[in-house]
Amino acid sequence: MDDKRAFERFDIEVLARIGIPDGEKRRSPIVLSTDNLSAGGIFLKMDAPLPTGTTVKVEILFHFDELKRPEDPEGSLIIAVSGHVQRSGPEGSAICFDDDYEVLTALDLLEQRLGKVSCEPAMLDLN
């Protein structure tokens, strides 16, 4: 059977934070481990997979030695993107990314979203 994916998929395990808008309220972000990742989407291991079609905001967290600074000793790089659940099953959920994305350091994300500097990454605004 031919693989018809548009983007090469990589087996990689990093942390991802998923924000789920819930009508007028926000649900708490979910922190999960990725199973694989491509330029077009991500597969997340989940005990309770999300319903197909659910809109999500995703932050994928990487650490690089080259980015380590006293303000960010982890050397964090964050890919922030929106998307939707394309399929779900007992093993987890596949999320298809929208065309909008940002690549930020943890400090850049904080400055952009909160207007102050801190060492803790912030979840994207879901409204």
Please give a quick description of this structure:
This protein is mainly beta. The chain has one helix at residues 106-114; strands spanning 10-11, 15-19, 21-22, 25-26, 30-37, 41-45, 55-63, 76-89, 92-105.
Main features:
6-stranded antiparallel barrel, globular, two-stranded antiparallel sheet, single chain, 127 residues, mainly beta, Thrombin, subunit H
CATH level 1 class label: Mainly Beta
The CATH topology is given as: Thrombin, subunit H
Kindly report how far apart the N and C termini lie. Answer: 41 Å
Enumerate the strands of the largest sheet in spatial order, edge to edge or round the barrel.
2-5-6-9-8-7
What amount of the residues lies in strands? Answer: over 45%
Biggest sheet features: 6 strands, antiparallel, barrel
* Rg: 15 Å
Taking pLDDT < 50 over at least 5 consecutive residues as the criterion, the unreliable ranges are 116-121
Helix fraction, binned, reads: under 10%
Mean pLDDT: 81
Provide a count of the helices: 1
Label the CATH architecture.
Beta Barrel
Helix/strand class: mainly beta
Q: What general form does the structure show?
A: globular
Overall strand count = 9
CATH superfamily: predicted glycosyltransferase like domains
